[in-house]
Specification:
With about 110 residues, the chain is mainly α. It has one domain. It has four helices and no strands. The longest helix has 24 residues. The chain is flat, with a radius of gyration of 15 Å.
Length: about 110
């Protein structure tokens, strides 16, 4: 159950980070509302997950998921670079997330 919560926290973290692009310094109402709700939701789910998961593992997976998700969405939504080094770096973070999951004893 904790891993499901952590996965959900990572997904909501992606929404949070993307909403920062759209709220334009908290000058746009609805993107700012989404930022606040998704930020609180992401932190809440993370806190719930770390009740049973190791803190270091959970935090690394949460930030890694957010980084990978936002990097991929940046490529899709904002036409950011898709060069081979960027893609390799994203893959390496994914491998790290998988490695942390596979070595978790909970």
């Amino acid at each position: 159950m904790a891993w499901i919560l952590l996965f959900a926290a990572g997904c909501v973290e992606i929404i949070f980070a993307l909403s920062l692009k759209y709220n334009e310094g908290f000058t746009k109402l609805w993107p700012s509302v989404i930022t606040a709700i998704s930020g609180a939701g992401s932190f809440g789910l993370l806190m719930w997950a770390i009740k049973t998961l190791p803190l270091g593992t959970a935090y690394a997976v949460w930030t890694g998921m957010g980084a990978v998700g936002v990097a991929i969405m940046g490529i899709i939504l904002f036409k950011e670079s898709m060069d081979w080094l960027r893609l390799l770096s994203i893959i390496l973070v994914i491998i790290g997330i998988i490695g942390l999951k596979l070595t978790d004893s909970y």
